[in-house]
C-alpha cells in the first residue's frame, strides 16, 4: 500500500505544479507576458507562446490588432446582428445622372481633368458580403490584405488599369473650409445665390453639399449654357459618388470644390493616388471591430477582387480582356447576386492557396496602360490631411518579383517631406526591387517568408475546430500551374475534392486526382 500512497502524493504534487504553470488569458484572449517565477529558467520562458490565438504571436507588426475585427471573429464574436458592412455604393444613381453625351464645351474640360473614365466604371450594386470578407483581412499598419499565403494589396497599377485614372501628379493639401466658406464657394464657383447656398449648407449641418443638389445645379446650368458652373457641379458630383464617397451616402465635402476652381489646371493631380488614399483610409477604419460602414469607392475594391480571385464570389463579365478596345478594366465586370454570406466566405478565403490567384491580371491590358515604375514607389501617399503608407515591397508577387521578408512599415506620422519623396521616387524603387529578383513562378517567395509571416500575422479568420490548437501550422504550397486557365481548373478540382473529403487512394476519385496533377503541371 506504501507504493499507492506515494503514487497519490506525486500525482497531487504534480497537479499543484501544473496549476501554477497554467497561464490564464485576459478578456481579449491574449496570453499576458509575465516575469519569471523564482527558479524558472529563461529558456523555458522564451519557449512559452505569447501574442494572440491564431496569431499574431509576434505583435511587433500588427500593433492595432487588439481592436481588429479578426480578433473577435476568431472567438465567434460578430460586429452586430448584421455581419456584413454597410457599403456606400452609388452606381445606380450615378448611371441615371451621367448623360450619354456631354455638351462639347463641358466634354473638353471633363476629358482634360483626368476623371472622365469615372463616368462609366461603377458597378450598379455592390456585393457587400464579398467586400466585407476581404475588409476583415485588411490591416492598416501594412496597407494590405493578410491572406493565408501572404500579403496582397490594391496598388497604384491596379488603380491605373481598373479606373484609367492618372497616377502621376501632385498631391493636394486643402485649406480648412467652414460653413461660411462653403457658402462662398458655392456662390463663386457653382453660380447659386447667397440665400440658396446658405439654406443648403445649413440643411447639410456642416461643410457639405448634397449629391442630388449638385446634379440639379448641373442640369440647370447646362440648360442655361453656363458651362463652367455646370462642369464644376458635374465633376464634384462625380468624385463624390466614386473615389471620394463617404459614409453619409448622400453628401460630399465642400472643400473638394476647391479642386475645380481652375478647370484647366485640375488635370495636374494624382487622381489615382487620391482614390487609393481615400480607400485605404476607409479600409483601415472598417477593419476595426467597432466600425460597421465602409466609405471610399467600393467598385475599385470589388473589381480588384474579381481580377485577382477568379474563383471567389459571383460576378458577370461584360467582355473578355482579349476583346477589350481600351476601356477601363472595371467596366469588364457587372454585378451578379451572390449566394454566399460573409461567414460562408471566411472559410473559403482561409483555404485559398497561391494557385487560386491570378498574380498579374493586367498583362493583357498593357496596350492601353503601360506599367509605370512609380507604382513600385515605397513611401507615404497623401491626399488632404490623410496620409497612408504605400508598401509594394509587401506584395511583390503582384509585380512579378519574388517575395522577401519586407522591412517594417513606415510611420507616416513622422513623415515630413512626402511631396519630395514622391517626386524623387526612383531611389525607393531601387530599394524595393534591389533586394529581390524576377519570380520564376508567379507565387515565388524566399525561404523562411511564410514562417515569418505566420508569426507576425493572423492568416486565418476561422479556427479549424473549436478546440483547435493555439498555433496555426505554416502551410506548404507547391508551385502550381503558371497559366491562369489551368490555375482555375486546378482550383475547381481541388475545391470539389476538399468538399467531399476525397482521399487519393480512393479509386472512385482517381481520375479527378489525375486531372488535378495534370493541371498543376501546366
Summarize the model shown.
Helix content is 39%, strand content 7%.
Kindly describe this structure.
The protein is mainly alpha-helical. Helix content is 39%, strand content 7%. It has a 3-stranded antiparallel sheet with strand order 2-3-4, with no helix packed on it. Strands 1-7 form a two-stranded parallel ribbon. It has a two-stranded antiparallel ribbon with strand order 5-6. Helix 5 packs across helix 11 and helix 6 packs across helix 14. The longest helix is centred in the first third of the chain and has 20 residues, at 2-21. It is globular. 41% of the residues are buried. The model is unreliable at 1-25 and 31-48 (pLDDT under 50). Residues 114-453 form the Aminotransferase-like plant mobile domain. Pfam families: PMD. This is Aminotransferase-like plant mobile domain-containing protein.
Core attributes:
single chain, 522 residues, mainly alpha, 3-stranded antiparallel sheet, 11 strands, 39% helix, disordered N terminus
Amino acid at each position: 500500500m506504501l507504493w499507492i500512497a506515494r503514487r497519490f502524493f506525486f500525482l497531487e504534487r504534480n497537479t499543484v505544479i501544473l496549476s501554477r504553470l497554467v497561464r490564464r488569458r485576459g478578456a481579449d484572449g491574449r496570453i499576458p507576458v509575465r516575469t519569471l517565477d523564482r527558479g524558472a529558467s529563461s529558456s523555458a520562458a522564451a519557449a512559452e507562446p505569447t501574442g494572440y490565438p491564431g496569431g499574431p504571436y509576434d505583435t511587433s507588426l500588427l500593433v492595432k490588432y487588439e481592436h481588429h475585427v479578426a480578433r473577435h471573429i476568431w472567438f465567434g464574436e460578430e460586429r452586430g446582428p448584421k455581419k456584413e458592412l454597410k457599403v456606400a455604393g452609388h452606381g445606380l444613381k450615378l448611371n441615371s445622372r451621367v448623360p450619354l453625351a456631354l455638351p462639347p464645351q463641358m466634354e473638353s474640360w471633363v476629358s482634360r481633368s483626368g476623371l472622365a473614365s469615372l463616368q462609366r466604371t461603377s458597378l450598379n450594386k455592390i456585393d457587400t458580403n464579398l467586400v466585407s470578407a476581404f475588409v476583415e483581412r485588411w490591416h492598416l499598419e501594412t496597407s494590405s490584405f493578410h491572406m493565408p499565403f501572404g500579403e496582397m494589396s490594391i496598388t497604384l497599377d491596379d488603380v491605373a488599369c481598373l479606373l484609367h485614372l492618372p497616377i502621376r501628379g501632385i498631391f493636394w493639401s486643402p485649406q480648412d473650409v467652414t460653413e461660411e466658406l462653403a457658402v462662398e464657394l458655392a456662390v463663386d464657383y457653382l453660380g447659386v445665390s447667397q440665400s440658396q447656398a446658405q439654406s443648403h449648407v445649413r440643411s447639410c449641418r456642416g461643410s457639405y453639399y448634397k449629391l442630388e443638389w449638385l446634379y440639379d445645379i448641373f442640369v440647370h446650368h447646362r440648360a442655361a449654357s453656363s458651362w463652367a458652373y455646370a462642369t464644376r457641379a458635374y465633376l464634384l458630383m462625380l468624385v463624390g459618388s466614386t473615389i471620394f464617397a463617404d459614409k453619409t451616402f448622400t453628401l460630399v465635402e465642400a472643400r473638394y470644390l476647391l479642386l475645380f476652381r481652375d478647370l484647366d489646371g485640375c488635370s495636374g493631380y494624382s487622381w489615382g493616388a487620391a482614390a487609393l488614399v481615400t480607400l485605404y483610409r476607409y479600409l483601415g477604419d472598417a477593419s476595426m471591430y467597432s466600425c460597421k460602414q465602409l466609405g471610399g469607392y467600393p467598385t475599385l475594391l470589388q473589381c480588384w477582387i474579381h481580377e485577382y480571385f477568379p474563383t471567389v464570389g459571383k460576378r458577370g463579365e461584360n467582355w473578355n480582356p482579349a476583346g477589350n478596345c481600351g476601356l477601363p478594366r472595371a467596366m469588364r465586370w457587372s454585378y451578379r447576386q451572390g449566394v454566399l454570406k460573409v461567414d460562408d466566405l471566411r472559410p473559403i478565403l482561409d483555404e485559398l492557396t497561391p494557385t487560386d490567384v491570378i498574380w498579374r491580371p493586367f498583362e493583357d491590358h498593357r496596350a492601353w496602360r503601360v506599367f509605370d515604375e512609380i507604382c513600385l514607389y515605397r513611401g507615404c501617399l497623401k491626399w488632404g490631411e490623410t496620409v497612408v503608407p504605400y508598401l509594394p515591397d509587401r506584395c511583390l508577387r503582384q509585380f512579378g518579383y519574388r517575395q522577401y521578408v519586407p522591412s517594417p512599415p513606415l510611420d507616416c506620422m513622422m513623415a515630413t517631406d512626402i511631396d519630395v519623396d514622391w517626386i524623387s521616387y526612383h531611389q525607393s524603387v531601387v530599394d524595393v526591387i534591389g533586394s529581390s529578383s524576377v519570380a520564376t513562378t508567379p507565387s515565388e517567395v524566399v525561404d523562411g517568408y511564410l514562417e515569418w509571416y505566420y508569426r507576425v500575422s493572423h492568416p486565418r479568420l476561422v479556427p479549424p475546430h473549436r478546440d483547435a490548437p493555439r498555433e496555426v501550422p505554416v502551410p506548404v504550397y507547391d508551385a502550381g500551374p503558371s497559366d491562369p486557365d489551368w490555375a482555375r481548373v486546378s482550383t475547381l478540382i481541388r475545391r470539389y475534392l476538399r468538399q467531399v473529403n476525397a482521399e487519393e487512394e480512393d479509386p472512385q476519385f482517381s481520375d479527378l486526382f489525375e486531372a488535378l496533377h495534370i493541371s498543376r503541371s501546366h
